[in-house]
Structure formats: structure tokens, C-alpha cells
Amino acid sequence: MIMIDTLVLVPAFITGMLLGIMFFGGLWWTVQQGLASSIPAIWFLSSLLLRMGLALAGFYWISQGHWERLGVCLVGFLIARSFVTWFVHSANTGCPGRLEGCHAPQSR
User: Fold this and answer.
1) Is residue 80 part of a domain?
2) Which domain holds residue 24?
3) Residue 1 predicted with pLDDT over 50
4) Residue 102 domain-assigned?
5) What value does the mean pLDDT take over residues 53-71?
6) Count of alpha carbons within 13 Å of 38, Cβ hemisphere only?
7) Residue 30: its pLDDT value, please?
8) pLDDT of 20-61, one tens digit each?
9) What are all long-range contacts of 55-62, with beta carbons under 8 Å and residues at least 24 apart?
């Protein structure tokens, strides 16, 4: 019977959290920079390639051919998504109670 060592899964979880914070935090930063830029397509495309490349390389490195490590890393990645969403929402003090962010009022 194969024994899953917890001491191997904890670093996989932490790495997943770090990858998720990097990926989704980088996405938030890219949106902020892209909206203020005169060439947003370059911002979004280069950010996508960099964030995806780093995340995939991190998943590949941490898994080392073991699906258990990959699964735990993915769970950490998804939990980090919730953390970054909460952080961005709480940092957006101008729009309390709105997860979508500040938008101009619609004309009637």
C-alpha cells in the first residue's frame, strides 16, 4: 500500500498558494496597468504568457510525476484565488459591498 507523506503535500499546498497569488495578483495588476495604457493588448498578452508559463512550470515542478502533489497544489492555487479576490475587494474602499469594482453610473 502506498503511503502519502504529509510532509511532501504541505510544500505542494504552499507552492500552489504562492502560484495562485502570483497568477491572480498578476492578473489584477495587469488589468490596472492595461486600462491606463495606450497599448493594452501588449499588457494583456504578455501578462497572460508570463503568468501561464510560470504557473504551468510551477505545477510541473511541484508534481514531479505524482498526481497527489498536483492535486494538492491545485487546491492551494484555487484557495489563493479566493484570497486575492477578497484582498482586492477589501482594498477597494471606494465601492463597499460591490465585488465587481467601481463603475461609472449608467445613464438612464
Assistant:
1) yes
2) 6-90
3) no
4) no
5) 93
6) 0
7) 95
8) 999 999 999 999 999 998 999 999 999 999 999 999 999 999
9) 55/19, 55/22, 55/23, 58/15, 58/18, 58/19, 59/19, 62/11, 62/12, 62/15, 62/16
Please provide the average confidence, as pLDDT, over all residues in the chain.
86
- Give, as one character, the DSSP assignment of residue 101: -
How does DSSP assign 39-72, residue by residue?
-HHHHHHHHHHHHHHHHHHHHHHHHTT-HHHHHH
Quote the number of domains for the chain.
1
User: Are the CB atoms for 87 and 30 separated by under 8 Å?
Assistant: no
35 is written with which cell numbers? 486600462
CA distance 89 to 95: 9
Nearest to 73 by CA among 21, 4, 15, 5: 15
On the 0-12 / 13-18 / 19+ scale of CB atoms within 10 A, 73 is: buried
Q: Is residue 31 part of a domain?
A: yes
